[in-house]
Design a protein that fits this description.
This is DUF536 domain-containing protein. The chain is built from four helices and three strands. It is mainly α and 177 residues long. Helices cover 83% and strands 6% of the residues. A three-stranded antiparallel beta sheet has the order 1-3-2.
Length: 177
């Protein structure tokens, strides 16, 4: 066998691809074998070298894309990390603001409770004073009524005495009988 001839299997082995891939490449590019022994096709050294170079270039391109893809993936992961970290920081700031607002609102509620309690206490005090004032007014009215009744009774009594003295004669008035 001539050392300048390469079979499809040998080309595939040196190019690190499958023999089927070599077969498809040969068929697509219309590369014909130089020699055919039994069922095995043999190709010239130049054809074999061009096929091997093509597949090596293709593999290098794929590897370069994989490396770029890996770098992009790592860069993308880092970008995602930075984005998520920024979002977490923003959410923590917003949470802090909301916490401060909540504390402020709780303070306002406490102040309103104190004011409401104070208002209720003032209302109770005012109501008690009003009731006390009404009781005092009632007592004054009753006292005045009692005084008025006493005066009315005294007036009636004096009127009765005057009427009795009017009926007496001159000498009875004069001598007190």
């Amino acid at each position: 066998m001539d050392t300048d001839l390469y079979s499809r299997a040998k080309i595939a082995e040196q190019a690190n691809v499958s023999p089927q891939k070599v077969y498809r490449y040969l068929k697509d590019n219309n590369i014909n074998p130089v020699k055919k022994i039994s069922r095995t096709d043999y190709f010239s050294k130049e054809d074999a070298q061009s096929i091997i170079d093509f597949f090596r270039a293709e593999n290098e391109s794929i590897e370069a894309n994989n490396v770029d893809s890996e770098k992009d993936k790592q860069g993308s992961e880092f970008d995602t990390y930075i984005l998520l970290k920024n979002q977490i920081d923003d959410l923590n700031k917003e949470l802090s603001k909301l916490h401060k607002r909540l504390e402020s609102k709780e303070g306002e509620v406490s102040e309103l409770h104190a004011l409401l309690s104070q208002e209720q206490q003032l209302a109770r005090t005012e109501q008690m004073k009003r009731i006390e004032l009404e009781n005092t007014n009632v007592q004054l009215i009753e006292t005045r009524n009692a005084d008025s009744d006493e005066k009315d009774r005294r007036i009636v009594e004096l009127e009765n005495q005057l009427a009795a003295e009017k009926n007496k004669g001159f000498f009875a008035k004069l001598f007190g009988k």
